[in-house]
Design a protein that fits this description.
Elements (H helix, E strand, L loop, with lengths): L2 H6 L7 E4 L3 E5 L7 E7 L16 H17 L6 E4 L15 E5 L12
Antiparallel strand pairs: 1-2, 2-3, 3-5, 4-5
This protein binds adenosine monophosphate.
């Protein structure tokens, strides 16, 4: 279990901006863009993308649909946005409860080059 389970149970505070039966969305505490929201599965703890089972594959679609709905609702879907999932150390994953980052609100720099 990670701190994201505590956010789901409302045991630690978060700015929750999206919720449905399977997905919770809340603002990242250390935003890397003007809009930075994390979307997580509420009912299953999957540490990394590498742990995802075929029976759980629909959850990734649910996270993406939640992010897209949020972008439309907040009015920046047409301007654009980025979704990111970090898997393990080389991607800088720090919380081992699978999550999708939604980044938006500015022209985002390119990525993929080694940072260290
Ligand atoms: P990752 O690096 O992909 O594992 O992303 C984890 C994200 O969780 C980071 O962007 C953190 O800033 C964010 N984070 C950590 N603790 C909290 C928290 N209590 N509330 C909201 N976001 C958090």
């Amino acid at each position: 279990e990670t701190l994201f389970s505590k956010i789901i149970r409302r045991e630690i505070p978060a700015t929750i901006v999206y919720e449905d039966d399977e997905v919770l969305g809340f603002k990242d505490i250390a935003p890397q863009a003007p809009v930075h929201v994390l979307f997580i599965p509420k009912n299953e703890i999957i540490p990394t993308l590498d742990d995802l089972q075929p029976s759980q594959a629909h959850l990734i679609g649910k996270l993406a649909l939640a992010a897209a709905e949020y972008a439309r609702r907040e009015g920046f879907a047409q301007d654009g946005y980025r979704i990111v999932m970090n898997c393990r150390e080389d991607a800088g994953q720090t919380v081992f409860h699978i999550h999708m980052h939604l980044l938006a609100g500015a022209q985002l720099g390119h990525f993929g080059t080694p940072g260290r």
